[in-house]
Structures are given as structure tokens and as C-alpha cells.
Amino acid sequence: MKTSGLIEALLFSRAEPWTALELAKALGKSFEEIIEAVTELETERAEGGIQVMRAGDTITLGTHPAAHEILQQLYKEELEKGLSKASVETLSIIMYGDEVTRGKIDYIRGVNSSFILRNLLVRGLIERKPYPRDRKRFMYAPTVALLAQFGVLNVTQLPEYARIHGELAQTLMGADITDDLTEQTTDAPEQITS
Fold first, then answer.
1. I want to staple 3 with a disulfide (CB 3.0 to 4.6 A). Which of 37, 44, 107, 188 is the partner?
2. Topology of 82-185 in CATH?
3. Domain spanning 3-64 has what CATH number?
4. Mind giving me the DSSP string for 34-82?
5. From CA 101, how far away is CA 96, in angstroms rounded?
6. How many CB atoms lie within 10 A of CB 51?
7. Can you tell me the distance from the alpha carbon of 104 to that of 179, in angstroms, rounded to the nearest whole number?
8. What is the number of alpha carbons within 13 Å of residue 22 lying toward its C-beta?
């Protein structure tokens, strides 16, 4: 597979921006090779619905500007609907968990949660914060607005917090082990997670 294809796979898999240096390290390529491959990928994706977006040396995937209007309408309709079962599950994990990353949410739910997290962020129900053990990743936390909707000052006042928090911590121990192993092997592209 060409370097541009590998870069596209990495950008898609993390669903978060990468720096050119991170891509170079993950793929074992030089900075110059990465910039050249990103330029090639931009050309390849120029007419597609998904395009390469760059801000300095930070690279991510995004939707084509021509799709903006229809996507805005869909987002608006989505925001006006109630929360789906998947959104409620994800929100519960974030509210009752500690240092909850997308990888941990995916571990518990068994599916990719990127779209759900984006919707919860857009609705202002959760916020992204730097993950203390790895600044390249993020953890998710409930917003003050969400806590206000539940009528609590902090998460410890949520119903059955101690019991559910403890059970979730036990379940997330497996995810912590997975995260730790991933951090130790980040040189291998197939091991990269969020």
C-alpha cells in the first residue's frame, strides 16, 4: 500500500488530527516523505466527499465544503431528536467513569463510538480534555450544563454513583491494560487507537 493510503487509514482510524511528525514516527518515514504523501492524498481526495484538512503540520480528514449545507441540516435534525440508546450508553460511561477515552468507550460498547461522541460534543453534553497519560489522546467528561440538567453539582451525586462507578472501574481495568499495551507499541501502525 502506498504511504498516502496508510496515512488515510491512520487518519480514519483515530478520527482525530495527527501531526506530520506523529505520522512519520508511526509509519517509519521521514517528515519530508509524509508531507509529500499528504500532498498526494490531498490530490487523490480532491473531488471526494471526504478530504484532507491541514492546519500547519496538523492533518485530519473532513467533509467536502460543498456538503456543508446538507450536513448542517442533518445535524440540526439530529440535535432536535432525543438521545439514541447508543448515546445514552456512551453518556453513562462518561458520567460514571474516570479518565474515559474513546478507546475505553469502544472497549465497553464493542463498537466504534466516534460518531456518538461527536454528537454529544455538538450538543454540549460532554467536553474533551487532555488525557494525562498521553497528551496525543483525549478523555471525555460531562459538561456543567449536563450536570445541571440532572440537577446535581458533581457526578458523585448521580443515582447509585458509588456502585455503578465501582462496577465500571472493574470493567475498564481491561481497557486500561489494552491502553497501556498500545502506548508501549505505538511504533506499529496497526496498534494505534484513541
1. 37
2. Arc Repressor Mutant, subunit A (1.10.10)
3. 1.10.10.10
4. HHHHHHHHHHHHTTSSEEEEEETTEEEEEE-GGGHHHHHHHHHHHHHSP
5. 13
6. 18
7. 8
8. 18
